[in-house]
Amino acid sequence: MSKVIFHVDVNSAFLSWTAVEKIKNGEKVDIRKVPSVIGGDEKSRHGVVLAKSTPAKKYGIVTGESLYQARKKCPNILVFPPRFEIYRRSSENMMNLIKRFTPHIEKYSIDECFMDVTNDLRGMEDVEFANIVRERIKNELGFTVNVGVSTNRLLAKMASELNKPDKVNTLYDYEIKKKMWPLPVGELFMVGKSMKKKLNELHIKTIGELAAYDANILKAKFKSHGKIVWEYANGIDNSDISRYRDEIKCISNETTLSNDLTKIEEIHNILISLCENLGKRLREQNKYCTSIAVSIRTSDFRNYSHQKTFKNSINSTKDIILYASKIFSEMWGKEPIRLLGVQLSGLCGSSNIQISMFDEEINPKNEMLDKTLDAIRKKYGDNAVMRSVLMPKDK
């Protein structure tokens, strides 16, 4: 029996989630229906478009371009800052809803997940069931998703991109030739800008041309990555869905960057922001951690991570930043970074300070300070108190 895999992907996630929050708080204008974007610091030279509304697309505004360019295209465009706490909460709400349909869930990123519904269709056709998932999310949570349907993760993910927004799309083996092979090769999962350029130099312009290319030549030229993209072009993917568990084993936070980063100062600020969020979540659950991992995805879609376990259990943001920064500095090979993530694991319910190589830098008073800062932010907002390095810089 073939598997039935769904890929659920939120449409313009950051903008949609911001819109839902604003409407919930009494806002009359749905920013999804007017030219609007979610963008970085507009006072900074690095302010870029992180998400855009459908009306904004009509002006030619694209994700990743500067807010300056976006305003040149549409002077009256509305710009809203990112609010990651809202995004995290919206993501958790979606995951909790999806758990009602199947326990076999793999959260792939903050705004997308895979579902293995092979044994959970309840007598329905796959597309009918996918539409129920799509409609339930829209009606109960207020935002739309695309659902890709196929027999493996790769094809389900590719299917969810075929026709947007608020759609269910299928991509089964017999549909690959018609639906996937005519697409530009750069639209294939795991083919980044660098790989696309190299494939184009081999006169491979479409996914179909990649699928028909000699796999041995690709493997010789691009090593294991060449084999992977050839298999993906042919719809081959034997990976399994990781089952979602209610019991919290770890807490993680990651962000896909709008521009590839190479400057250590900018990367460090992103790392601090991720750790700030994780420290707050850890303390909200009255937990401590004994292990930290940092993960990187490079501009050519290579993933690697490094983890360290330590004797002392911590939940101080300052300590989390300390460990994460040391891990990052040891692992980073200076490649341009597309995604950066931090994960806390080895969760426990109490502090246990022991001798460690970083003992001189671990201070129990940090925990008391963090609790005070958490209380201030809870009452006055996340931006009421922030680290100086994260404050907007004057030009």
Describe the overall structure.
The chain is of the alpha+beta class. The protein has 3 domains: 153 residues, Reverse transcriptase/Diguanylate cyclase domain (Alpha-Beta Plaits); 53 residues, 5' to 3' exonuclease, C-terminal subdomain (DNA polymerase, domain 1); 141 residues, DNA polymerase, Y-family, little finger domain (Dna Ligase, domain 1, 2-Layer Sandwich). The strands form 3 sheets. Strands 5-6-1-7-8 form a 5-stranded mixed beta sheet. It has a 4-stranded antiparallel beta sheet with strand order 9-12-10-11, with helices on one face. A hairpin with a 2-residue loop joins strand 5 and strand 6. The longest helix has 21 residues. The chain is globular, with a radius of gyration of 22 Å. The termini are far apart.
Layout of secondary structure:
Blueprint: E1 5-10, H1 13-24, E2 36-39, E3 49-52, H2 54-57, H3 67-73, E4 78-80, H4 84-98, E5 105-109, E6 112-116, H5 126-141, E7 145-150, H6 153-160, E8 168-170, H7 176-180, H8 193-201, H9 207-212, H10 215-222, H11 224-233, E9 250-261, H12 264-284, E10 289-298, E11 303-314, H13 317-331, E12 337-345, H14 365-380
Parallel strand pairs: 2-4, 7-8
Antiparallel strand pairs: 1-6, 1-7, 2-3, 5-6, 9-12, 10-11, 10-12
- SSE arrangement, N to C: EHEEHHEHEEHEHEHHHHHEHEEHEH
Query: CATH homologous superfamily of the largest domain - what is it?
Result: Reverse transcriptase/Diguanylate cyclase domain
Query: Helix/strand-derived class?
Result: alpha+beta
Radius of gyration: 22 Å
Low-confidence blocks of residues? 353-362, 387-395
> What gross morphology would you assign?
globular
Distance between the termini: 61 Å
Please give the domain count. Answer: 3
Largest sheet: 5 strands, mixed
Tell me the CATH topology of the largest domain.
Answer: Alpha-Beta Plaits
For the biggest β-sheet, the strand order reads 5-6-1-7-8
Helical fraction: 25-40%
| Proper CATH architecture of the largest domain | 2-Layer Sandwich
The count of strands amounts to 12
Subunit structure: Monomer.
Pfam families: IMS, IMS_C
Keywords: Cytoplasm, DNA damage, DNA repair, DNA replication, DNA-binding, DNA-directed DNA polymerase, Magnesium, Metal-binding, Mutator protein, Nucleotidyltransferase, Transferase
Subcellular location: Cytoplasm
